Amino acid sequence: MSEMNANNEILIHVESGVMTITFNRIEKKNSISSAMYATMADALVQADSSSVVRVVVFQGHEAVFCAGNDIEDFLKGPPTSQESPVMRFLYAISSFTKPLIASVCGPAVGVGTTMLLHCDLVYAGDNAAFSMPFVNLGLCPEAASSLLVPQMLGYHRAAEALLLGEPFMAEAALEVGLVNRVLPPLEANNYAQAIARKLAAKPVSSLIETKRLMKKGQAALVAQSIGDEAKSFGRMLSEPAAKEAFGAFLEKRKPDFTKL
């Protein structure tokens, strides 16, 4: 069966126990709007309780995975509560009980990278470029990345990724364990689907319990980190640095933080 949101910007397809969530907003580099977050959050909640869905796969286009938040949409409706679409998505993906797979090609910016920290398997095209440029926008990390990135990369590499916010490529992501395998871009989605089908053929109760046991030691800490980051993120959105960063983005100029 297949479903999609009203604007076709998130495609959802379920077949053979695998739900595939596809970013389908290529003209905007798959940047995410509030409506898209809501669609994905609802899909994850439904998939978690469904007896039909056993595995979920996130994928984009072979040229771009996700450029992060749609800035204009984000500024019109910034997340101000735990019930906002973006927060619902972050809590849904971080607490999802079944296997989560991502296929990432091209740019994965901001949440396009941090969401991968909550996936169990990540396959990347050799053109993948990961970046978390929150500081460059006058903001702070989200999606528990302030906790999970240092754990995965080690402190100094995490500081480089989060303080500089510069992209790192697929081979570097493979080296630090963010991705499981690097493939040609045209092969990544198919490979992720093949792994998803392999998982879907296994006993779902065993998959769920194994994932729970692996994650139980820090599940509460991840949820707390998401909430703590959201409070800081919300406060910083209204501060001068973020206003300058977003204004510069919309005006297509370089931001000037020297007087802040």
Give structural notes.
- The protein is 46% helix and 16% strand.
- It has 260 residues and is α/β, with parallel strands linked by helices.
- It has one domain: 2-enoyl-CoA Hydratase, Chain A, domain 1 (Alpha-Beta Complex), CATH 3.90.226.10.
- The longest helix has 19 residues.
Radius of gyration: 18 Å
Biggest sheet details? 7 strands, mixed
Report the order of strands and helices: EEEHEHHEEHEEHHEHEHHHH
| Mean pLDDT figure | 95
Return the CATH class. Answer: Alpha Beta
The shape, in one word, is globular
Number of helices, counting only DSSP H or I runs of 4 residues or more: 11
Q: Which percent bin holds the helix content?
A: 40-55%
Question: How big a fraction of the residues is strand?
Answer: 15-25%
CATH architecture: Alpha-Beta Complex
Please report the distance between the alpha carbons of the first and last residues: 53 Å
**Within the largest sheet, what's the order of strands?**
1-2-3-4-5-7-10
Which spans of ≥5 residues are poorly predicted at pLDDT below 50? none
Structural class: alpha/beta
Going by CATH, the homologous superfamily would be 2-enoyl-CoA Hydratase, Chain A, domain 1
How many domains comprise the coordinates? 1
- Beta strands, count: 10
Indicate the CATH topology.
2-enoyl-CoA Hydratase, Chain A, domain 1
Note the topology.
Layout: E1 2-4, E2 10-15, E3 18-23, H1 34-49, E4 55-59, H2 71-76, H3 85-94, E5 100-104, E6 107-109, H4 111-114, E7 121-125, E8 129-131, H5 145-153, H6 155-164, E9 168-169, H7 170-176, E10 181-183, H8 185-200, H9 204-215, H10 219-237, H11 240-250
Parallel strand pairs: 3-4, 4-5, 5-7, 6-8, 7-10
Antiparallel strand pairs: 1-2, 2-3, 8-9
Helix pairs in contact: 1-3, 3-10, 5-6, 5-10
